[in-house]
Amino acid sequence: MYAGGGKGEIARALADVSVSPIEGQSGWLVRNALVDRLGAGVAGTASRYRLDIRLDDRVEGLGQLSNDAITRERRTLRARFQLVDTQNGEVVLDATAGSDAGFDVVNSEYAVIAAEQTALENLSQEVADQIVTRVSVRLRKRS
């Protein structure tokens, strides 16, 4: 699949994928990760494909003490994405990607916020990797 490195057929196809804006902080992180991986986003060029993504970002409590205090949380990031051929509007790929991460809830509110943010950053990278892999496989089959 990666034959030819950055000048190979798949790399050129991936560079021809634009990423639509995605709402929210998680959307900003995922979109930036995708643009980095795809080599997309070159200003002034029309792309053959467009990647449309909807995210679902949730934080839920898992561990609970007898006084109802939460001791552990899980952050889940799920993406529903479609690869659209801009020449004819055909949806080439319609799929999902996702990951989750758990972290402890401690007495320091700052530490909990930092853990939630780190989890989001890591999940954004993982989801972007999954999306690029699926898009790569699909574009390889089209060529």
Name the shape in a single word.
elongated
Provide the residue-averaged pLDDT: 88
| Number of distinct beta strands | 4
Instruction: Work out the radius of gyration.
Output: 18 Å
Order of adjacent strands in the largest pleated sheet = 1-2-3-4
H/E element order = HEHEEEH
Major sheet: 4 strands, mixed
SSE-based structural type: alpha+beta
Helix content: 25-40%
Query: Treating each run of at least 4 consecutive H or I residues as one helix, how many helices?
Result: 3
As residue ranges, the low-confidence spans are none
Strand content: 25-35%
Straight-line distance between termini: 11 Å
Short account of what is shown:
With 143 residues, the protein is α+β, with helices and mostly antiparallel strands.
Please tell me about this protein's structure.
The protein has 143 residues and is of the alpha+beta class. The protein has three helices and four strands. The chain has helices spanning 9-15, 24-38, 109-142, and strands spanning 17-19, 49-64, 70-85, 91-104. The protein has a four-stranded mixed sheet. Strand 2 (49-64) and strand 3 (70-85) form a beta hairpin. Helix 1 packs across helix 3 (109-142) and helix 2 (24-38) crosses helix 3. The radius of gyration is 18 Å and the shape is elongated. The mean pLDDT is 88.
